């Protein structure tokens, strides 16, 4: 599943379509996708894992689920869920994704301050939300899109290793300093992810995700296929990542 930084990269690549009219629409989506034909894209936006095309009075929301993908000005060779054609033969194709429409103003549907990569990100608000859920596991808290929009499983595992916190630690048991580190690194690591992915070196920089040995102390990493309420894969070091609570 693409995480927030990957969606920002898509948003930047698709910015060329802002201000342009959709001339052709096709795809196997069950939504009324033809409503976009001959409509101008007013803005290309993103929120967390959601890619957004804003039109007058509504917006298109793309969520890539587990296996979704996109192509700009090329064809993947399989039927697209949605294909938007523009002038000069340019095209924006989406595959194996969720296609939905959001009616009205996007500002009424999204809390932009919850997006860890947004200029309007509000770390203080994230800390308040976390303190209101003291029994939540740290691993689940990082995947809560209402708190950390855009954080996915890779970022979760890497952030917890970076701040030396066991994934099953309870949020309410974290010292204030550790809570602040968790919030800060959710954003900082997301930007590291973004830069590494643009440079095609993201996987080379994994410290624990899909790895077997901790690079800090050489301990064999612990692994669980389904951890926490989110039931997502977890990789952690039992030596340097402390359990709180």
TrEMBL record:
Keyword DNA repair: yes
Keyword Nuclease: yes
Domain Formamidopyrimidine-DNA glycosylase catalytic, first and last residues per copy: 2-93
Molecular function GO labels: damaged DNA binding; DNA-(apurinic or apyrimidinic site) endonuclease activity; lyase activity; oxidized purine nucleobase lesion DNA N-glycosylase activity; zinc ion binding
Catalytic activity of the protein: Hydrolysis of DNA containing ring-opened 7-methylguanine residues, releasing 2,6-diamino-4-hydroxy-5-(N-methyl)formamidopyrimidine
GO BP annotations listed: base-excision repair
Keywords from the UniProt entry: DNA damage, DNA repair, DNA-binding, Endonuclease, Glycosidase, Hydrolase, Lyase, Multifunctional enzyme, Nuclease
Family, as annotated: Belongs to the FPG family.
PANTHER family linked: FORMAMIDOPYRIMIDINE-DNA GLYCOSYLASE
Record-given protein name: Endonuclease
